[in-house]
Amino acid sequence: MSRRFTAGRPEYDKTAIYQYPEHLRPSLEALPGQPGVYTFHGESTTLPQYIGKSINIRSRVLSHLRTPDEASMLRQARRISFITTAGELGALLLEAQMIKQYQPLFNKRLRKNRQLCSLHLLNGRPEVVYAKNVDFAAAPDLFGLYPSRYAALQALQKLADTHQLCYPLLGLEPTSRGKACFRYALGRCAGACCGAETAENHFQRLRAALEVLRVQCWPWPGPVGLVEDSLHGKQIHVVCNWYYLGSVTEVEQASALTRTLPAFDQDGYKILCKPLLSGSYDVIPL
Fold first, then answer.
1. Could you give the CA distance from residue 59 to residue 111 in angstroms, rounded to a whole number?
2. What's the mean pLDDT when you consider all of the chain?
3. Which residues are in the GIY-YIG domain (predicted)?
């Protein structure tokens, strides 16, 4: 077996252990050239190996079979299943939902982040708040979504460095009333700490800098159906508080999905925010 050496350690050449997975050929015949989600299954009947999505399931799965970097997963796979969707949006939503539900071995795990936090403007100063304490779907003046307090403060520090904002006024370091901070002497702070800039002007610049990170509140009083209609079919994606509840083909079927309304979902927000707010899809209040 060929080996390469990286940083003093041997690294096996994945192309040397790759063999075309002939045992998966029976699964290929039924694969459609349509949007949807596909799953590689191993010996386990409950734990999938890998879940992916594509606008063309057949083409994407075939590309996996020709990828030496995935040799380990392909050797262990025993069959491939799929679920078609009306379009790309439905595939994105279903993939994220299934990965969180089944936790496939070879996927980057998507779990509910109990430490999900954001920056909230309170009394002119950004504070770190957590989704477990604040409803991110409804709370105004939230900026950015972060996996931890440390990540949120790092983002705030980067913002301060970019816009010459004052660390002490942002709570990033101790403040001495009326005394210039160290970054002001270096020309990296506009001087709100020592009166060279007014506190009001500093606050307005902070708000403007944060605006690009604003978390949009859920704009409807309850769940809605997002209609995706294409050559491949029609689906109504049922969503509430940026949380994907499932998809149906008829509006009347949506009531079964809306009996328990969920809290904010980060993955749903990232997938749905632009499509929902852009007006690209018809939206049906439920």
1. 28
2. 90
3. 33-108
Instruction: Report d(CA 104, CA 98) in Å as an integer.
Output: 9
- Judged by DSSP in three states, 20 sits in coil
Q: What is the arithmetic mean of pLDDT over 212-225?
A: 95
Alpha helices (H) along the chain: 14-17, 25-28, 57-65, 71-76, 88-102, 149-163, 167-170, 182-185, 199-210, 266-278
User: Can you tell me which residue has the tokens 């969503």?
Assistant: 239
CA nearest 247: which of 30, 31, 36, 58? 36
CB 198 within 8 A of CB 246: no
**In the chain, where are the structural domains located?**
23-102, 117-213, 224-285
> Distance between CA 107 and CA 51 in Å, rounded?
7
Q: pTM of the entire structure?
A: 0.84
Whether the CB-CB separation of 166 and 202 falls below 8 Å is answered with yes
